[in-house]
Amino acid sequence: xxxxxxxxxxxxxxxxxxxxLKNPGPQGWVDALAxxxxxxxxxxxxxxxxxxxxxxxxxxxxxxxYVLHRPTPSSRVAxxxxxxxxxxxxxxxxxxxxxxxxxxxxxxxxxxxxxxSGLLAPVVAPTPCVISMQGILQSYVxxxxxxxxxxxxxxxxxxxDFVAGRGPVHDYLALRRRAQREVEIMRGAxxxxxxxxxxxxxxxxxxxxxxxxxxxxxxRAPFYEAEWEPRGRHHTGVRLYNTSSELMGKGTECLLExxxxxxxxxxxxxxxxxxxxxxxxxxxxxxxxxARRNGVEHEVDWLGRLDAxxxxxxxxxxxVFVYPSHVDNSPNSLVEAMAVGVPIVASCVGGxxxxxxxxxEGLLVPRGDAAALAGAIKRLVNDEDEAKRFGARARLxxxxxxxxxxxxARTLSIYNEILTHAESPHLAGRGSSPPVAR
Length: 438
Prior knowledge:
The chain has helices at residues 12-17, 28-37, 76-85, 93-103, 120-123, 137-140, 150-157, 160-163, 168-188, 197-206, 221-225, 252-264, 282-293, 308-317, 332-340, 352-355, 370-382, 384-401, 404-423; strands at residues 2-7, 44-51, 55-60, 63-69, 107-111, 129-132, 191-194, 211-214, 238-243, 270-275, 300-304, 320-323, 344-347, 363-365. It is an alpha/beta fold. The protein folds into 2 domains: 2-218 and 405-427, Rossmann fold (3-Layer(aba) Sandwich); 221-401, Rossmann fold (3-Layer(aba) Sandwich). Helix 12 crosses helix 17 (370-382) and helix 15 crosses helix 18.
């Protein structure tokens, strides 16, 4: 079987070929799945992505990579003008369709509905094309400014970044365009892979005739190998860890308020460590101002982007992993924390309840509710036995659900089932996927 993947983010092999340091950012699970699939007998994998720089095709460890050239405006003025248009870029679609024609894969797998690649599905027919659902932009855009005051937003407008077409407001306007494109992608394709009750419902609302297949993800190796252990009843200080990102809507401002509540309630030695927020960004400035407003600026460590090993170290050293996002489908950072077994408090949004069972594997609270967030954190801090029990159950669930052997087998099963449907059109659209199961 020959499968062609399209990925929005650069795989590690592409980063190395471009001479870049490995980016510890999103879609590390794509590399993790590729590393497993390439070992399957009779399986041939090609991965395509885009870049502003030209790069010839190359092969590494049995996987062939294509980097499609994404042209960018040549002058600074042209780049600023392009930023202000907030266009959903489709500049490489023609080249991508031509690549499908040249390689003639048995199947095309597009990772994510957020990028333009999903528009290929009707274009490359009759080659079957399946799309993995990751973030659901239609919902993200509705809650983009959640937790932000008018003053916060106004401050970003009065900046050089805004004039240059960058920053949160421009990101929001671009996200609206991409959300509209996502609807077109979801309506135009026949086969989708998802992981939660929520993404299945979102797909059914847009394209009820589409076939949905449930398949979990392979996590990066360090998260399977590590195991959280409590620091003991006599350790000093309470340590919270949160993986945020460069995106708005992760609820970090709510967590900062929760830390303030915890300090006022008697946990004066609480410390919060936040990863994922780009240093020096407008978003970091927003969070730092929120920390000052809540009187906790000296209790927060801003860690920037971390690789897998450093995240594991943070998880193992934490008393509680806190994930207060306003909207999310299947956040990898939550699954990674579950795999390590650290006690978890998260907001009950999107696909999170599918991943983490409330009061069995962790505690779920309403989004944006700082008092509820603080109360759940304090409950786990004060009840070490319950915290250990939740963490152990979550770890067991993650290791079973995200077992690499199981995920690879399920992925191949989906590919084969889609190929069968493609060869027998009367079978297509029957919803061959089993219900979302734990």
